[in-house]
What we know:
Blueprint: E1 6-11, H1 16-20, H2 22-30, E2 34-41, H3 52-68, E3 73-79, H4 88-101, E4 105-108, H5 116-131, E5 150-154, E6 171-174, H6 179-186, H7 190-200, H8 204-218, E7 225-230, H9 241-246, E8 250-252
Parallel strand pairs: 1-2, 1-4, 2-3, 4-5
Antiparallel strand pairs: 5-7, 6-7, 6-8
Amino acid sequence: MSSDTVALSICAHPDDTELLCAGTLALLYKKGWEIHSATMTAGDMGSAEHTQEEISSIRPVEAARSAAVLNGKYHCLHCLDIFLSYDRPTLTKTVELLRKVRPRVVFAPSPQDYMIDHETASRVVQMAAFAAGIPLLETPGYSPINYVPHVYYSDSIDGRDIFGDSIEPRILVDISDVIGIKEQMLCCHETQRDWLLKHHGIDEYVMTMKKMSAERGGRIGRPFAEGFRQHLGHPYPQNNILKTVLGDLVYERK
Length: 254
């Protein structure tokens, strides 16, 4: 598979990809792209009933099952949940992943979000996309890439920053035809879904995802959409490759 048709989502925790950009990954998959998803942690703090060791072995399996819906591959960098840091080991692991997968498109968490793990992951991915081409940053077994990938930031979890102000996406992708696939992928994360079912008595996990997707879809007159902002700083690509590949499913807001 050429790197020109490889997409990689890198998030902080298992289920972040499914909540934020799985619909767009599904659309790319339908166009023949190879799909990878990665998390910096195993979500090892994400349980009220399992031990940290137990949940850190369960959640990556759920994430791999989700990626398999798109015949994709899942990668875990095994950093610590809640303690995710912008440091040399984390950045080096992320650069190594980029050199291994060699994606043309990378999806990252929003730079502004309710949780610092998400914001830290966003910064690490931004830098790793740049640093993956630097020869003096060594990752034995994986050679530098010779391009800077397209980097897209997903929405924050509720579309707002920590002050409650709206974060407006500049790119909206119509995922109406693949919302069922997005839901299927999200429901692979049974430990998180069951936790909410037990505590709230309703399937809030899926409802929250659909509510947010519907809000974004309403902005373009479609049932469901996902929102993104593209990193356009020097020397990142300036063209919107999602628009090139997905055509009329992509709406650009100035």
